[in-house]
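Why show two proteins at once? Because comparison is the fastest way to build intuition. When a single record is shown, students tend to memorize it. When two are placed side by side, the eye starts asking what differs. So, the first record is below.
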Amino acid sequence: MACFIRLGLVALAALVLATGCSTFESRAKERSAVFAGLDEATRARLEEKRLQVGDTEDMVYIALGAPDEKRESLTEGGRDTLWVYNAYWREYQGTRIVGYRRHVVGTPGSGNYQVYFEPIERDIYQPRVEERIRVTMRDGKVTVVEQVKD
């Protein structure tokens, strides 16, 4: 049994190390050939996550990372690819009673017992998702950037 637990912990550690975090630096290194060919102003703009019409798919990836969703649409003008980036958070919904804890208390000298029930409360959070950025591309170049303003 202990062998299985150790094996599980080793597998979990390997998974955490393999996935890593997607940062601007890691994405720029991953697409180093594209990033090296950009001028300094464009590099700074991508680091600030600011896109422009005409940017390539690689530039969008360097700036924002992999999209949460990809969609394709066919129009009379050609085939468009839409990259969608979402924001994820948990919204506080309040506190709810989720059960009761029983307490049995003896009365000294009488031998009697009293039972009390104490409510158990938990904070409730609702998972939320909201589209934040939509990037439309045609022939590998950005044609439209839609972004939610805070």
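Second record. Ask yourself what differs from the first in the token line.
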Amino acid sequence: MSTDYILETQHLTKEFRGFTAVDGVNLKIVRGSIHALIGPNGAGKTTVFNLLTKFLPVTAGRIIYNGRDITAEKPAQIARRGVIRSFQISAVFPHLTVMENVRVALQRKLGTSFHFWKSDASLTHLNDRAMQLLDEVDLTRFADIETVALPYGRKRALEIATTLAVDPELMLLDEPTQGMGHEDVGRVVELIRKVSANRSVLMVEHNMSVVANLCDTITVLARGAVLAEGPYAEVSKNPQVLEAYVGSSEMEIV
């Protein structure tokens, strides 16, 4: 029986005025798995994310999602298909409460996210679901706190809650533990493990202990091309991968 892939790229390529940022990348994301995209700075990881979510147009190659070619689709179409992305910089509304942030995301799914003139009372039917999502990410006790007052790690957890609000089938997480202390990293790792139970995850991550602890498959990029792929135990011993990381400012891969 063939492996069930939720997302595939075929010779995915992105050029910027003669510079090849992504060079013929072939990815296969197994449905229900956590897949990491790693590599030194400038390897093309975020560019791949931008291509998958159509923030950038593809120069060449194809993107296949659930067996359908989505290469030419717009970002909104990709999101409606259930591919939802987080960013390196936390993207929440700082002066809304924690629950209000989740409620805005729930409104987006209903197509009313820009109806800011609606009274608060008219949105109370979303409160129960918002609180359920906050419970999933251990933020229930912060529900009525203005988001600007949250510690950084909790803001990242809130961002995951708002991502879950639109019921993604595939979550793209860009540096989910960036800038966190050890305690927050551990909390977010367990959170990702929990929320991935019924969905697939593709993540860019520099913290190799996170990758080793969390991910089923790792794809290593270098200079825009795939250098190696496999489980952490295999990739971390690959001489080409070790060479690619030598002299970089990032955490050692072993």
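One difference worth noting in the second protein: The domain at 1-82+169-254 is CATH 3.40.50.300 (Rossmann fold).
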